[in-house]
Write a structure and sequence with these properties.
- The protein has one domain: Alpha-Beta Plaits (2-Layer Sandwich), CATH 3.30.70.
- Helices cover about 25% and strands about 20% of the residues.
- It has 7 helices and 10 strands.
- The chain has helices at about 5-15, 35-45, 50-55, 120-125, 170-180, 195, 215-220; strands at about 20-25, 65-70, 75-85, 100-105, 110, 135, 160, 205, 225, 235-240.
- Strand 2 (about 65-70) and strand 3 form a beta hairpin.
- The radius of gyration is 19 Å and the shape is globular.
- Residues about 1-15 have low confidence and may be disordered.
């Protein structure tokens, strides 16, 4: 075997991962309470944008609740759809980044290297889910709000793109704990902030490579679908259609 083939083989072995992190969103359970939005803000040190910034389209959320209406008056019902980064297996945001700040990890995460990002926003323009947010300003929290910042998550400066990471800091902690105990990560060991905060358990997170995980069972449910499936992005977020009327 020549050196080039050895290098390729070595890289593939290094890149191979026993995990594939995915999420399932049960729309039949979502009430649109936005607890997940607040939990994501607190966990990931997302800056606060006021009314003036929001009016200019500069509100910043890693997860949002889309509201839509079904039926005709007077039988109109409000429906809710949580939307976060879909962590696509064929992510449109990755190939357009000129500095490789947006890349795909072996575990199926669409990662963002903040200190490499130069803020051209190509990735945000190429994301069909509008899941990437541009940080227009340096973050600021009035005292004592700065005391609640999560020390496990970096505080991003202005001029960079940011997005949902499936709480990668929690994923790393869960993997390190499992490694110390000489085992794989068990289903339920890792819980992103949005999943933890959901009062109706509408969000389910886990390892799709584990056939016994809840995610693996639910994603193959007959109710499952993906957002904008026709684009061929192959998202890692599966939505379950509503059962209730």
């Amino acid at each position: 075997m020549n050196q080039e083939n050895q290098a390729v083989e070595g890289y593939s072995k290094k890149a191979a991962s026993p995990y594939k992190w995915e999420m399932v969103v049960d729309l039949d359970r979502c009430t649109g309470c936005e607890a997940c939005v607040l939990a994501c803000h607190a966990e990931n040190n997302i800056r606060i944008s006021g009314e003036e910034e929001a009016a200019q389209g500069r509100a910043i959320n890693w997860i949002r609740i889309e509201r839509y209406w079904e039926g005709e008056y007077p039988d109109v019902k409000a429906k809710f759809l949580p939307v976060m980064c879909q962590h696509c297996d064929d992510a449109p945001c990755e190939p357009v980044c000129p500095v490789y700040a947006s890349y795909h990890t072996p575990e199926g995460l669409n990662a963002q290297v903040y200190n490499r990002c130069i803020g051209v926003r190509y990735c945000g323009n190429n994301c069909p889910y509008v899941a990437r947010q541009f940080n227009w300003f340096d973050p600021h929290w009035d005292e004592p709000l700065a005391e609640q910042l999560n020390p496990d998550v970096t505080v991003r400066s202005g001029g960079v793109m940011e997005k949902c990471t499936f709480c990668v800091q929690r994923i790393r902690t869960g993997k390190e704990t499992a490694e110390k105990e000489g085992r794989r990560v068990k289903d339920g060991d890792i819980t992103p902030a949005c999943v933890q905060s959901c009062p109706t358990s509408a969000l389910i997170f886990g390892d799709a490579n584990d056939p016994e995980s809840r995610v693996a069972h639910l994603k193959n449910n007959g109710r499952g679908f993906h957002l904008l499936e026709s684009l061929g992005t192959h998202p890692s977020v599966t939505y379950l259609r509503r059962l209730s009327e």
